[in-house]
Write a structure and sequence with these properties.
Blueprint: E1 7-15, E2 18-27, E3 32-37, H1 46-56, E4 60-70, E5 79-80, H2 82-99, H3 107-110, E6 117-118, H4 129-179, H5 182-198, H6 205-218, H7 222-241, H8 246-266, H9 270-290
Parallel strand pairs: 3-4
Antiparallel strand pairs: 1-2, 2-4, 5-6
Helix pairs in contact: 1-4, 4-7, 4-9, 5-6, 7-8, 8-9
Length: 294
Amino acid sequence: MIRSMTAFARAEAAMGPRFFEIEMRSINHRHFDCSLKLPALLDAAENDVRDWTQQALSRGKITITVKETSREQGGTDLILDEAAAKRYLQQIRKMQKKLGLAGDITVQELIKLPGVFSGPNGVSRGLTQAEAQAFKTLYTRSLKTLLKARETEGKKLAEDILKRIQLMAHTVKQVESLAEGRAAQVLDRLRKRLQEITAGAGMDEERLYRESVLLAEKSDVTEEIVRLRSHFDLFEKKIRAGGQAGRELDFLCQEMHREVNTIGSKSQQFEVSREVVFLKGEIEKIREQVQNVE
């Protein structure tokens, strides 16, 4: 089944003294567009995070926020580097004075700066190999949650679209019934009109028949109906097959709209024109839904 591009996922986990929170939001977009907001200690992993994301998600505008906080455990896991904190404050105040900037830095902002806290014996706050692997596991789990949410939304979209396709197929069947016998109607209308004009004088029946056939051919919508049904079948197969079907479904919507437009321009029956308006409305609704499909 198809997947939606609109979804949300959240995951969190503790890794020793660190605690990570990951939020992922995905909305529709023609291409893959990933916006990352990572803590400083993950700067080196940005390319990896982007690659993991693109491997899982082919399309959509994805916004990913990773938050990290340090939690002391027994008072031995983290060490405050007072000198580093003072240097940060000195440089910030120097910058404020030089540029004429106002505002105070809070403790919450200060402790997030790299190097303010270190591990036992002054170990760098960068991720250890074990922590990096644990983070990748957490991130992968978040991606799976997002994919699951996309699939759930995609299922709802698919159900709605398939109902509309079935309704359109029923409407096309009605259009076909209305169009049947069109040649006979044209012939009868021409005969009556000519009788009114000639007041009962002799008519060339053969010429009348040729003209009526020509007009009937111009208003015949059999080919358009056949192509429409073909589009309906292909549309349904693409939806049920799943995968990356968004662009193909959008193209099929354009082709369906083209055929319905042609039926509307060919037909001179009010009943058919009314059904054409309905079909156009349904195609537009489907196309809006398809914009959210991966």
